[in-house]
Amino acid sequence: MPKFLATQPLRNATLTFDLNDVITPDATDLYYIASNRYEIGTDKINGSVITIPNVNLNKGQLIIFDLGFYTMPSAGTYKFFISIDSTHKQEMVLDITKN
What we know:
The structure is a single chain. This protein is mainly β. It has one domain (3-96). The chain has strands at residues 3-5, 10-18, 30-33, 36-39, 45-46, 49-57, 62-66, 76-84, 87-96.
């Protein structure tokens, strides 16, 4: 379940989560902003990239993805990328020791 913690308030931001072809999200997968639950939907998915427009988060709030049940990739280290309004790219590392 990838999570994003807002370290500063976001207003009408576009968040892009690039799962780097490690996991391909499904339109029926969910994401949560604060306590609100949403279905990702096909309009927010392009391959393994999820783009969520018009995000409003206060400092300290989370956006969490519930990507359903998937077979994990082979053991190894994988990188995911997060950007806000196409800038401020950050990297997350997923380290899998067993499949």
